[in-house]
Amino acid sequence: MAEGIIKKKTDRGFGFIRTNRGNDLFFHMSAVDGVTFDELQEGQKVSYVEAKSEKGARAENVKPI
After folding, report:
1. What is the DSSP string of 37-65?
2. What's the CA gap between 53 and 44, in Å, rounded?
3. Domains in the chain with CATH codes
């Protein structure tokens, strides 16, 4: 699993993770595992699995570390 930091969360149920490669990766609240979306905080370290979708790369299985 890759690791990154929550860069931004929105009140619309999605956010972005800053990856170790320096780019941002989209994630949706349905991809959060082990906690609720509301429990995640900007600046928090998370692990995730990078997946492909029709709209590009996204994070799945997002878990706090």
Report:
1. GGG--TT-EEEEEEEEETTEEEEEEEEE-
2. 25
3. 2-64 (2.40.50.140)
- Put simply, whether the predicted model's pTM sits higher than 0.90 gets the answer yes
- Sorted by sequence, the CB contacts under 8 Å of residue 9 that are 6+ apart come out as 15, 37, 40, 41, 42
Sign of the dihedral defined by the CA atoms of residues 30, 35, 39, 44, in that order: negative
Cα 62 from Cα 30, distance rounded (Å): 9
**How far is 26 from 15, CA to CA, in rounded Å?**
6
| DSSP state letter for 15 | E
Per-residue pLDDT of the chain (65 residues; tens, 9 = 90+): 899 999 999 999 999 999 999 999 999 999 999 999 999 999 999 999 999 988 899 999 999 99
